[in-house]
Amino acid sequence: MQKQEAELRRFPDLIISTPGRLIDHLRNSKCVDLDNLEILVFDEADKQLELGFESEIKEILQNCSRDRQTLLFSATLNDSVQSLIDLALKKPVRIKINASNSTNDKLTQKMLKIPFENTREASLLAVAAKFYKDKTVIFFKTKKQCHRMAIIFGLFKLSVCELHGNMTQNQRIQAFTDFKEGKYSYLMATDLAARGLDIQGLKAVINYELPTEVSRYIHRVGRTARAGKEGVSLTLGTEQELKSLKKMLKENQDSAMKKFSIPEDILKSYQDKIKGIEREIERVIDEEQAERQLRKAEMEMKKAENLIKFQDDILNKPKKTWFQTNQQRNQIREASKEASLQKKRHL
């Protein structure tokens, strides 16, 4: 916070911030204001509103110069976004970019039917080891499964890096850079962490599970077959899941899906191999957990030392203020959680 405050006092030309942190500085940092702000940008406004940031956005608007230019980017135009437009914009000019609901004709789309759910891991491992050996991104729904498969690939000496929300920003940037530079053959990622990825020469995209929305599927497979180059996508799924995928694509585009198969003996072989290293997988997970706990203990110890060392400064420091009461913040947080759950139920 103090480091950021010092940087803000140097009057940077561009500030990129979350709503909450910006308000924190406006209320609690010295000599920080938006009186001379020329341009205000709200990126992914619909998602910010969905996550419960409406009050924060309104607070920022109240602290800005009236002479500013405001840019608002949103994938959807619902009632909440329209209300924000009415509040934040004067004589708005609307620019609509039609999203592509089809895939590149240079992309070859394939699907692999897995006989049972418990063969999914073995299917992915066999596909990677036998067929897709370089410049491949593999998408997962959860951070837990993403990390588990990264451990499995590592134990099989397959060159892999990860990209998900349990990593720090610096770790994600480093992993992405290393993959782009060819230091790793596989990048395992969740949707959120991999948004906006642009990797030249990406050969293949593999969907470990079926995406819930066709737009998400198109976004994933659109990472390959770019700039006139050919690419391949492969989606793993049960018979019912792949039927859903074909129906989803048929309603949105005219894309042919090719069937991909793995010989039963090879699949059985990789199932047995994964079973054979389960204890090793658990050992790696336990070691990582112990290391996290050790780091946490070290941080707590350092925090306690600083509390003693800087006790006078801490006691004399003015108490932070906020534009909402704790009760209001909790109500907004709960409403946001409920809205998110409602959305998931409709997927």
Automatic annotation (TrEMBL):
<keyword id="KW-0378">Hydrolase</keyword>
<feature type="domain" description="Helicase ATP-binding">
    <location>
        <begin position="1"/>
        <end position="95"/>
    </location>
</feature>
<keyword id="KW-0067">ATP-binding</keyword>
<keyword id="KW-0175">Coiled coil</keyword>
<feature type="coiled-coil region">
    <location>
        <begin position="267"/>
        <end position="314"/>
    </location>
</feature>
<feature type="domain" description="Helicase C-terminal">
    <location>
        <begin position="106"/>
        <end position="268"/>
    </location>
</feature>
<dbReference type="Pfam" id="PF00271">
    <property type="entry name" value="Helicase_C"/>
</dbReference>
<comment type="similarity">
    <text>Belongs to the DEAD box helicase family.</text>
</comment>
<dbReference type="GO" id="GO:0003676">
    <property type="term" value="F:nucleic acid binding"/>
</dbReference>
<feature type="region of interest" description="Disordered">
    <location>
        <begin position="325"/>
        <end position="347"/>
    </location>
</feature>
<keyword id="KW-0347">Helicase</keyword>
<dbReference type="GO" id="GO:0003724">
    <property type="term" value="F:RNA helicase activity"/>
</dbReference>
<dbReference type="InterPro" id="IPR014001">
    <property type="entry name" value="Helicase_ATP-bd"/>
</dbReference>
<dbReference type="InterPro" id="IPR000629">
    <property type="entry name" value="RNA-helicase_DEAD-box_CS"/>
</dbReference>
<keyword id="KW-0547">Nucleotide-binding</keyword>
<feature type="compositionally biased region" description="Basic and acidic residues">
    <location>
        <begin position="331"/>
        <end position="341"/>
    </location>
</feature>
<dbReference type="InterPro" id="IPR027417">
    <property type="entry name" value="P-loop_NTPase"/>
</dbReference>
<dbReference type="GO" id="GO:0005524">
    <property type="term" value="F:ATP binding"/>
</dbReference>
<protein>
    <submittedName>
        <fullName>Uncharacterized protein</fullName>
    </submittedName>
</protein>
<dbReference type="Pfam" id="PF00270">
    <property type="entry name" value="DEAD"/>
</dbReference>
<dbReference type="GO" id="GO:0005829">
    <property type="term" value="C:cytosol"/>
</dbReference>
<dbReference type="InterPro" id="IPR011545">
    <property type="entry name" value="DEAD/DEAH_box_helicase_dom"/>
</dbReference>
<dbReference type="GO" id="GO:0016787">
    <property type="term" value="F:hydrolase activity"/>
</dbReference>
<dbReference type="InterPro" id="IPR001650">
    <property type="entry name" value="Helicase_C-like"/>
</dbReference>
<dbReference type="InterPro" id="IPR050079">
    <property type="entry name" value="DEAD_box_RNA_helicase"/>
</dbReference>
